[in-house]
Specification:
The chain is built from no helices and eleven strands. Strands 2, 4, 5, 6, 9, 10 and 11 form a seven-stranded mixed β-sheet that branches. The chain is globular, with a radius of gyration of 13 Å.
């Protein structure tokens, strides 16, 4: 059974930092892209950052220079280092792991106070 466990969310003041982690287990196929999405209240889910199996990264414009995505292939874990957080970053953050199928984490709340 595939399981994605996210951690690292919480409440932080504007300008602060958080590091999200997402550990995948039970995956029998090779993992391709790993990514982080977020969904604010009343908003559509949006792609925040992605990283390929070869380590190529991509970011949505609003987080470039502030967020860094990385992965540990030996641990099937993807990370999102978030610095210089802004109130508009407040959302539920979801990880997605793409193999033969797509798997989603349960979401972790990130709240940035002004």
């Amino acid at each position: 059974q595939v399981r994605l466990v996210e951690s690292g969310g919480g409440l932080v003041q504007a300008g602060g930092s958080l590091r999200l982690s997402c550990a995948a287990s039970g995956i029998t196929f090779g993992i391709n892209t790993m990514a982080w999405y977020r969904q604010g209240t009343g908003k559509q889910r949006e792609l925040v950052a992605g990283i390929t199996s070869g380590g190529r990264t991509s970011y949505t414009d609003s987080v470039k220079g502030r967020f860094t995505i990385s992965r540990d292939n030996a641990k099937n874990t993807v990370y999102l280092q978030m610095n210089s957080l802004k109130p508009e970053d407040t959302s539920v953050y979801y990880c997605k792991v793409a193999t033969r199928y797509d798997y989603w984490g349960q979401g972790t709340q990130v709240t940035v106070s002004s």
